[in-house]
Input
Amino acid sequence: MPLATPYYLIDETALARNLEKVERLRAASGAKCLLALKCFATWSTFPQIAPYMDGTTSSSLYELKLGREKFAGETHAYSVAWSDGEIDEAIAHSDKVIFNSVAQLERFAGKAAHLPVGLRVNPGVSHSHFDLADPARPFSRLGESDRGRVEAAMDRVSGFMLHCNCENDSVSAFSALLDTIEERIGDLLMRLDWVSLGGGIHFTKNGYDIDGLAARLKSFATKFGVQVYLEPGDTVVTDTTTLEVSVLDIVENGKSVAIVDSAVEAHMLDLLVYRESGAVAPNAGPHRYQIAGKSCLAGDVFGEFDFPQPLAIGDRISLLNAAGYTMVKKNWFNGVAMPAIAIRRKNGTTDLVRSFDYADYVASLS
Ligand SMILES: *Cc1c(COP(=O)(O)O)cnc(C)c1O
Output
């Protein structure tokens, strides 16, 4: 019997294809790769992912603990700001602590004297298509930007974290960015043991020059005598997962609108945040529909797609690329039933690994 929709369907074979690329990059570059849990934290896949990566990085205490508990390897602790109430636990669960400002470093680094300590530095350059996600936007709080303050803290840190990329699928753009960083802070990089270059490099994309990226990372590591880390999120899971939905109703109102048993804001929030369209395959044929969610938000629209046959009530639709920044952001808006999580194994069987019900909805509020 097919699983009831809605559910996220993670494909092990597709994930394996991306992980082979992670492995190739690690081997060719010497860089260590940590999964960024803020993008994807569906831990039932960690047994498959962990052998291909060096550990996890986090943006909060909870992600940090999840990485420690469910994923082998190194656990990096980073947060935009640690609170007094969480810093001791954070340090207890981490292999490296990275502070976002010199003020946080001064406040808490004494507690982490037994660990390598890092500082997030903001070199003031970035590759990002969206102001919302641009770490170098004006007045950015993401990383220490004041060179004087960074210099004064150099003897207290062994590494920097520099996260300046978002959806960068060009080796030459990445390389040029790194050139600028080297010019601006190369003298400081010389004094470090390790540098994390963050996430946002889309190296699993078809046709991406992995060897070119590896060579650039290797020359950076050699020039400054540092261990390089990358913190990929999206690129590890891109094109591995679909959101499986069913058509509930079809409304004709100038356009044919198919309403499905999901909601963009609740289950694929980034489409709204970044004003993007979802995707289906093959997206071809003479029958065009707007695919819309069942929440009462007027703009709850996944996109407009072409289908080979007219849609009928009960038809299933697979919305593509539903792994990164989806399950970590899903919510109970409108009380819409939360998609289950299923994994299609390499042998073709599909396992339901988590489902949610009314009790979970009730438990999320009080
Ligand atoms: C968001 C983020 C990542 C992961 O970025 P992706 O675009 O998903 O690869 C890694 N490191 C830091 C510091 C981040 O903020």
Observations:
- The mean pLDDT is 97.
